[in-house]
Hints:
By secondary structure, this protein is α+β, with helices and mostly antiparallel strands. It has helices at residues 2-21, 24-90, 164-214, 230-262, 264-279, 285-317, 329-346, 365-382, 440-450, and strands spanning 97-102, 108-111, 126-130, 143-151, 155-162, 325-328, 350-356, 360-363, 388-394, 402-408, 454-459, 464-470.
Amino acid sequence: xxxxxxxAGLHGFVxxxxxxxxxxxxxxxxxxxxxxxLSVGLILGVVYRTTAGFLEQEIGExxxxxxxxxxxxxxxxGLPGLVDVVRTRSAVANNNSIYLLTTAAGxxxxxxxxxxxxxxxxxxxWTHFKVADYGGVNDRPSTAQAVxxxxxxxxxxxxxxxxxxxxxxRTRMFRxxxxxxxxxxxxxxxxxxxxxxxxxRRIEAINRTxxxxxxxxxxxxxxxxxxxxxxxxLAGNLNAMLDRIxxxxxxxxxxxxxxxxxxxxxxxxxxxxxxLALLHETEDPEVYRSVLQDTIVEADRLLATFTALLSIAExxxxxxxxxxxxxxxxxxxxxxxxxxxxxxxxxxxxxxxDIRGKPVVHGNGQLLAQVVSNLLDNAIxxxxxxxxITLVLDGPAPGRAACIEVADSGPGIPPDMRDxxxxxxxxxxxxxxxxxxxxxxxxxxxxATLHGAKLELSDNEPGxxxxxxxxxxxxx
Length: 476
């Protein structure tokens, strides 16, 4: 049993490790690690070239100068003088210099090497060989770098330096380079794992939230870690999207319930009216005419309700945004005012229109005209006979591109109900006696959201003031 549990735990650990390796964060960490290791390697290479490489260059220049001096001494004093100089220099204690002077047959005349090295010199005469096999300096295993050349008379001369210290430096530097690169790789890999683990934990939180939402819980939200980074911004955007989806789903449910409730009464009246006309047989055509006319009026009300619902749905979907064109708001306001001024005059109301400029915004002219018409229709409907209605169009100002304002002297809307009246089929108790379906302000709110505008309802003292504020980016 314990073996099975151990095997399951090991399998889970391996699976988690594989998921970690497949993450984008881990792959990016590996990429950054490779770039970092390459950078460290280049830096250490430069350090090596500026230390060991510089020392090797200095030794080479020193050997070249010494060779030139020995050649001059040979020309001036001949072979005996050269032998004396080589013997003298070879006898110096703790000397890193290496000398060897031989005949053409290989007989040693002077020097501190036991024999001519077997290494083959390059084209310039330089050679690198091990001197320990020949009883090198201080009898310690070491290598040497030397230059060889042939003197007049077929005598051969070798001048070099013991390279053991530089070899040790080079070995230590390569060993340090290996340790540094290994530590860098381990630290980078560990950091990549930590980064990937943190990213996976946050992404898993998002996945867990999406699974909850897919299971039907629309109230769950993506947790935010409070760092203000891109993951927190992503969580904020996802939560805003989820809030929007929840509102739409709630609104859809509310619309379904409201449609079922509010349309049942007119459909029942419609059916009852037709049924009564069929039950009471009469030869008077006016009776049937009257029933048909009432039926048409009722059907028009139903069609108006469905048309408003379709307009709201279309505005909320954003489909009309692709049809946006520059719209002259002055023309929209003037057209709506000309349309509703006779209606206001008929009720003895005074409709005042004040157009302060000709702002142009990017939008849908038909929907904007319907918004102004809905606001004027509501104002005329709820303003008592003899009341005042004002329609104002204001131009650009700080923080806005334009403002459309409709105010009336009616009963107004209480502050605690101003958000609710924007919902579908919501009507105040005082407005239920007047014709309407409770969709006018809902359409206004949907069109405002489509255009990125802000809809404000405030007190006109007395009456209601509705303001539609277009953002600066809507200006064209």
